[in-house]
């Protein structure tokens, strides 16, 4: 009974050893069969990645140029906005001065002028009356016959004073106009200041976008040599891996000799002395 069991166990060990050798051989065969397809497939992915990097690099270069152009254009627009705002600020001081001139100084001057003219008109009336009286004096009147103005001086001065009466009101109206203009200019300048703030925000966004572009360009420059080197060294690396796998399965197949010898020993009842590596 023991002999039968020993022989059965020996057959099992022999079959296991042969199966191990067969599986190792198949594994080695498959490994060498798939080596070239694996290299081709991986290289195709690497070539596709490099091509994508080329396409993206060109796109990033275009984006970088566009950002530079946009940054310059925005800077020019911002400069124009600030210049207009500064001009309006200076103009506002002029408008304030003009409003004060037409609203206060000129009306006060005209009032003072009217008072002077009215005073002169009174004096002229007295002079006209005096001259008229002298013309009526016998013997002396002939000397004053030449003084016959179409409009007496006092009336002429009075007419001038009357004409000046409406000017202060007109100047006050001009003051209101200047103040309205100043208010509108202040509104425009405020809008320009808001526009400058928005432009500054746009410039900050452009700077951040350029920083992202620069980082990507740096990444692309560092990644390209690595992918190129990996693609070029891929056949050697895969071949080395295949050789390592082949060596492993060859060692595994060789190690099955121990099981084979044990099986033969159990079947035939004798030991085959052979140096075999332990599995």
Overview features:
mainly alpha; 279 residues
Structural commentary:
This protein has one domain. The chain is built from 2 helices and no strands. It has helices spanning 2-135, 153-268. The model is unreliable at 270-279 (pLDDT under 50).
Question: How would you state the average pLDDT, rounded?
Answer: 77
- Uncertain regions spanning at least 5 consecutive residues: 270-279
**Helix and strand string, N-terminal first?**
HH
Count of beta strands: 0
Q: What distance separates the N and C termini?
A: 30 Å
Helix content: over 70%
Q: Summarize the biggest pleated sheet.
A: none
Instruction: Tell me the overall shape.
Output: rod-shaped
Helical segment count:
2
Number of domains: 1
Radius of gyration of CA atoms, rounded to a whole number: 56 Å
- Report strand %: under 5%
Structural class: mainly alpha
Topology record:
Blueprint: H1 2-135, H2 153-268
